[in-house]
Design a protein that fits this description.
By secondary structure, the chain is α/β, with parallel strands linked by helices. The chain has a domain of 198 residues: ABC-type transport auxiliary lipoprotein component (Rossmann fold), CATH 3.40.50. 27% of the residues lie in helices and 28% in strands. The strands form 2 sheets. A 6-stranded mixed β-sheet has the order 2-1-3-4-5-6.
């Protein structure tokens, strides 16, 4: 019995280093300790295209923009103030807040989708700095005729900054965990000690986020619109496992799947629903029936589920809101030369 044990030991000594070497070679194909000619140690994974980030209300917001254009309704100038997170909920590991701190930015995107006339009041740091430079005659809009030669400075004109008619403020006021949950655990086994054993689990749980927004008349500070919404968010987790003895060997197999509806996308949804109702009021839209039409009566939109823009050139036939929604529009995967240039960056 000694010889076999020695042979097994020797075999193990040979196989283990070989296995380690094989693993090292496989890993070196993905990560190298020496940077390649392109200057990188590894090529990043993931090549999914950038896509739009709509909610169930994004299409209705774009519809409102179409309704306003078709009926020649001009949007009032709207500014967005701070829409803060008032829940105070933080991650248990101290890594930060549980909810997004960008609700104001979501509201700006929602207003842009609806075709609102936006004026910036949220971050005016660059404008204020340039105004300071212009006031000191340090900034110019004209190219210098020669290096070091003086150029005409930017003039400050009275009334050059348009004022807002309304501004939008509010906050995320609710984050409630585990409003309702349910679960199921089931197991079965053969009566024999070495028989097959199977187990299955499943869980469902619901939470919600709440939002309160108000629209204020900038001149009179009268609150003209107040909306409070909440959205429930669902999560699930399922799993199954099996344990068995087969020919003296032990086998254990398990699999699971889980998912949680994105919390921050839930915040975006309640923001868009609130903005949708407010803009419908400002446009005088009678209701959802204004969106029940055949085809696209507008065409070449500047508003879409990605937001809105002011066209710099008269090329809406090729550069519009619909083209911005196309995830493959700027993809170079079908262009061999462009793809080669892209690969050289990794």
């Amino acid at each position: 019995m000694v010889a076999p044990s020695l042979s097994l030991s020797l075999l193990a000594r040979v196989k283990i280093p070989a296995t380690v070497s094989a693993c090292a070679v496989a890993l070196s194909a993905c990560v190298s300790p020496v940077a390649g000619p392109n200057g990188n140690y590894a090529r990043p994974i993931g090549d999914a295209p950038v896509t739009a980030n709509p909610t169930p209300y994004s299409t209705a917001l774009v519809c409102l923009s179409d309704y306003a254009r078709a009926n020649h309704i001009t949007s009032p100038r709207i500014a967005v103030g701070r829409i803060s997170d008032y829940t105070g909920k933080e991650e248990s590991d101290g890594s930060g807040r549980k909810l997004t701190q960008g609700a104001s930015l979501m509201a700006m995107s929602a207003l842009a989708k609806s075709g609102a006339n936006l004026v910036e009041r949220y971050d005016t740091s660059v404008s204020e700095l340039e105004l300071k430079y212009a006031n000191n005659k340090l900034i110019s809009d004209a190219a210098s005729p020669a290096p070091g030669a003086p150029a005409d400075y930017r003039k400050i004109v009275s009334g050059q900054v348009p004022g807002s008619d309304y501004y939008l403020v509010g906050g995320i006021t609710e984050l409630n965990f585990n409003i309702r949950s349910s679960g199921l655990d089931a197991a079965g086994a053969d009566s024999k000690a070495t028989g097959l054993k199977v187990e299955a689990t499943g869980q469902l749980y619901v939470m919600n986020v709440g939002l309160d927004l108000r629209l204020v008349d900038t001149r009179t500070l009268q609150v003209v619109d107040v909306i409070s919404y909440q959205k429930q968010i669902i999560g699930r987790q399922v799993g199954v496992g099996a344990f068995d003895f087969f020919n003296g060997n032990v086998f254990q197999v398990s699999a699971g799947e889980g998912g949680l509806e994105p919390i921050q996308l839930g915040v975006r949804a309640v923001v868009e629903r609130a903005v949708l109702e407010m803009m419908a009021n400002l446009y005088g839209a009678p209701g959802p029936q204004v969106c029940l039409h055949d085809g696209d009566p507008i065409g070449g939109r500047t508003t879409g589920v990605t937001g809105g823009f002011v066209p710099a050139y008269n090329n809406l036939d090729k550069n519009n809101a619909q083209t911005r929604q196309d995830p493959a529009r700027w993809s170079v995967s079908d262009d061999s030369h462009a793809a080669a240039v892209q690969r050289s960056r990794y």
